[in-house]
């Protein structure tokens, strides 16, 4: 380990250990009894057991705030307005809260503990978020590290969502994992098949949820899904859609494109879909997307490999997806018609694509994205 990293890492480790000790002591030494959570000026008033984070407290009352990271404090999604005094902003909140949001008293629900009566404001649309019981119906390997999983809904038996939205998968205890966790995954299924939810899950080394899906989950297992969440969806404009994804970032676009084709929605939109991977073993749905391109004149598919080997026989675009995107925006996708960007993937990929898009004249206000937490 580089010597310059030892001090900061040791400090971070000690801070995390200290926070854990404080949390455990707080739970053992303090009994907060029953407190009230008042929502939207009294439209809902919930008597709850005090002492737990607001995010989990609300979930216990079947009110679900979005949380792409499952309450780990790493996504910044579970924002809500807290009008009562709950103390100063925590260091775990400040990276995700802007000065403007501070002025509006926005907090991260996963970082606030409900220790006394609290008053909050949330979008009323969240009252319609549901917890679904589902069974694992089909599992298919798309690549060596990406699985396509279809969940058959049981109760409720159908889900109403917009293409591009996501659900939170509740992963049960398994192996050395002693508590259930939740992780967010975009739906790759379509609203026209409301009895099923399909997810694309890429194996992340050490990932609690992805390890369960890839190594422990079995067909027939019963799980819980919570949703739908999110506002990543097709905008009703005549602008050309310039879409970019990699890996499991394919999921929301599969839902969007198949739904648009089935319903012939947004008929004025031309669609360009750029999909980047390292080698052919990381590519999937190639035949389906090439078939879609042949049958759907306004859809253009541009797959690209950054590191193909000669023996792979790849005859498509070669290079980083940002470079391929840049060349097409500057030479092939007409700037004579308004263009808007749609991105799904890692923060690094999305930030790099935003730079390319803005350099080529796409207004930042017309770039929409879904960042992995």
Structure description:
The chain is of the alpha/beta class. The chain has 3 domains: 30-126, Beta-grasp domain (Ubiquitin-like (UB roll)), CATH 3.10.20; 130-229, Elongation Factor Tu (Ef-tu), domain 3 (Beta Barrel), CATH 2.40.30.10; 240-371, Nucleotide-binding domain of ferredoxin-NADP reductase (FNR) module (Rossmann fold, 3-Layer(aba) Sandwich), CATH 3.40.50.80. The protein has helices at 3-29, 54-60, 99-103, 208-216, 250-263, 286-295, 321-331, 347-359, and strands spanning 34-39, 44-49, 79-82, 106-108, 118-121, 130-141, 146-155, 166-171, 181-186, 196-202, 222-229, 240-246, 271-277, 299-305, 317-318, 339-345, 367-371. A 6-stranded antiparallel beta sheet has the order 9-8-11-6-7-10. Strand 16, helix 8 (347-359) and strand 17 (367-371) form a beta-alpha-beta unit.
Across the major sheet, the strand order is: 9-8-11-6-7-10
What is the molecular shape?
Answer: globular
- What's the story with the biggest beta sheet? 6 strands, antiparallel
Individual helix count: 8
**Low-confidence runs:** 1-13
Derived from helix and strand composition plus strand pairing, the structural class reads alpha/beta
Count of strand segments: 17
CATH topology of the largest domain: Rossmann fold
Order of helices and strands: HEEHEHEEEEEEEHEEHEHEEHEHE
């Amino acid at each position: 380990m580089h010597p310059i990293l030892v001090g900061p890492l040791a400090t971070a480790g000690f801070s995390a250990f200290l926070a854990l000790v404080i949390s455990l002591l707080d739970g053992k030494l303090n009994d907060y009894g029953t407190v009230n959570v008042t929502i939207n000026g009294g439209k809902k008033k919930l008597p709850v057991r005090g002492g737990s984070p607001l995010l989990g407290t609300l979930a216990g009352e079947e009110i679900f705030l979005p949380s792409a990271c499952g309450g780990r404090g790493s996504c910044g999604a579970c924002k809500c307005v807290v009008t009562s005094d709950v103390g100063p902003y925590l260091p775990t909140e400040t990276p995700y809260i802007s000065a403007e949001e501070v002025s509006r008293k926005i907090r991260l629900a996963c970082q606030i503990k409900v220790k006394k009566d609290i008053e909050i404001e949330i979008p009323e649309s969240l009252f319609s978020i549901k917890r679904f019981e589902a069974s694992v119906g089909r599992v298919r390997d798309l690549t060596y590290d990406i699985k396509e999983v279809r969940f058959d809904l049981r109760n409720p038996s159908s889900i109403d969502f917009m293409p591009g939205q996501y659900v939170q998968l509740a992963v049960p205890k398994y192996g050395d994992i002693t508590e259930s966790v939740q992780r967010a995954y975009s739906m790759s299924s379509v609203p026209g098949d409301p009895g099923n939810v399909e997810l694309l899950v890429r194996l992340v080394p050490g990932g609690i949820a992805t390890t369960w899906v890839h190594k422990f989950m079995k067909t027939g297992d019963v799980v819980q899904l919570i949703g739908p969440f999110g506002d990543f969806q097709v905008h009703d404009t005549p602008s050309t859609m310039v879409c970019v994804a990699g890996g499991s970032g394919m999921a929301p676009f599969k839902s969007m494109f198949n739904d648009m084709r089935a319903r012939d929605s947004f008929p004025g939109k031309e669609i360009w879909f750029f999909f980047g991977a390292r080698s052919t073993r990381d590519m999937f749905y190639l035949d389906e997307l090439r078939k879609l391109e042949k049958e759907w004149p306004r859809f253009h598919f541009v797959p690209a490999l950054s590191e193909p080997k000669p023996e792979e026989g790849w005859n498509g675009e070669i290079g980083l997806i940002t470079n391929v995107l840049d060349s097409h925006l500057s030479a092939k996708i007409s700037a004579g018609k308004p263009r808007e960007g749609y991105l799904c993937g890692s923060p690094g990929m999305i930030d790099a694509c935003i730079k390319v898009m803005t350099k080529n004249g796409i207004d930042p206000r017309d770039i929409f994205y879904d960042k992995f937490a």
